[in-house]
Structure formats: structure tokens, C-alpha cells
Amino acid sequence: MCRNVSLIFFSLFVAILTGCTQTPPISERPQMGNLLLAEPAPINPRSEMAIARYNQVLNSPALSDEDKAELHFQRGMLYDSVGLAGLAQFDYSQALNLKPDLAEAYNSIGIHYIQQSDFIQAYDAFDSTLEIKPDYDYAFLNRGIALYYGGRAELATSDLNTFYQKDESDPFRALWAYFAHHDVSQQDGMIYLATIRPTLDSNHWATSLVDLFLGTVNENQVLNSLLEGVRSQKGLTDRLCEAYFYLGKYHSQNGNSGIASNYFKLALSTNVFDYVEHRYARLELNRLRDQASNFVASEE
After folding, report:
1. What is the pLDDT of residues 67-105, one digit of tens each?
2. SS3 content of the chain, % helix, strand, coil (to 5)
3. Top-tier CATH class for 61-127
4. Which of 247, 202, 201, 200 is nearest to 222 (CA)?
């Protein structure tokens, strides 16, 4: 299952990305220097075969509505994993028509509503998930993300804190809670992140991303640590999808919209369709475009 890791290194000048006419020394330009690029994840042929098999099984007249609902949900997850979002959302809708108490389907369709910026429908979907399964961890994450992108960061902090508290060693949970706190108050967000930093797993590679936001490591140190523990091309691509996204968030927060935009595009280029980071990279790009348009409008 593991394959040899093939690595592609590009030394990119910041001037290419920022439009600057001067090229600073390497020590002063950590942004995207010595960048490790991902090989886009290929479509898994097993997923394609499984989809074909589900298509055959769903045509069987002997299936109960409950069985059909589960099959639609499972096929929807497969469609999501290969980037066929429209077909996935259709299957989740079919699953809910057949089995209205399928919590997992509400959760999955809610993610699609976030990606479409249809936040009211997303809130309703995640509320339904938690009504059916009050302990469904990822519904707290996803509702928190919906509230965060929907401009309700103060409400998002509650859900994202709850999700973080279910595993206080996880740096990704810490980062999402931090994003919401930072939107409410930049100062309080930094205090929050510094407070929870001691609980995080120091051996987890993504803890270096938390340290980047805290300012205790620089971007080059994060980039140089990305290969630690990677044993396959898939593992590398998955990690880079995550790293690109959070580096984009870092630069977005620091006002480096051009570099942030490039990182979000790199996250999309990995084709890791079912990762949170891939799902919301395009939403981040849209936010950057909206900010740029609003700035131009205010200058006119």
C-alpha cells in the first residue's frame, strides 16, 4: 500500500507571488521559499469500482427504504471522495428522503451547504444531526465552521470549543477554535491559543502550525518539518493539503492576500477532496476576492 515518495522542490521568489520588484534575501523571505509541491492525488480506482457496484445494487427491487438510504449515503461519500460534489449532494438528499433520521446524511449535506455559502440550510442540517445524535462530534465542528464562515464567530466559539475539548491534544481542533476566537477579538484569540498550547501533542507535526500562529516558529521551520514521518506519496499529499490551507490562513490573517491566495490554490491542487482543508480552500479564496472588491469599492 505504501509507495515511494517522489518529491518536487521549487525555489520560488516572493516577487513572483507578490508582484514586488525587489527580491529580499532568503532569510527574509520565508513565504513559499523552498516550497514542497504536492503531486495531485489520483482518483482511486477502487472508489470508481465501488460506485459502479452501488449503482447496480440500488437497482434491486428487493431493497427496503432503509437499505436504499444507507446505500445512497455510502455512494454519496464515495462521490465526495472523487470530487463529484453535485452527485454526492443528490445522494445525501435521496438518503434523507428515504430515512429522515439519518444523522450522518444531515452532517454530510450540511458541509455542501457551507461550501455553497448557504449557511441557513447548513445550520438546520447540523441542528438536525445533533437532535438525532447529540454526541456526534463532527457536527459540532461543522456547525462551528458554518457559523464562522457565516459571520457568527461569537456563536462559533461555543461549538468549536466543544469540539476541541473532546480531544485537547489535537492541533487541528485547536486551530479551528482559535480562528473563531480571533474573529471575535484578535487579542483574545492569541491569548486563547497560548493558553491551550500546553495541552497539544508536541509530537504531532501540525502543532508547528499552532506555534507559527503564536509566533514561536517561522514559516521556513514549518515547511522544513513537513516531511517528518511521511512514508508514502498519499501521506505526503494529504499533509500538504492541510499545510497549504493553514499557511494560507496565516497569511490571510497577516494581510498577505496574494500569498494566502496562492496557498489556498495549492490546497485545491492536491485533489484531496474529502479533507476539510480542501473543502474550504475555495471558500477562503472567495472571501479574499470579496475583501479585495470591497477595498476597491471603498477607494472609489
Report:
1. 999 999 999 999 999 999 999 999 999 999 999 999 999
2. 70, 0, 30
3. mainly alpha
4. 247
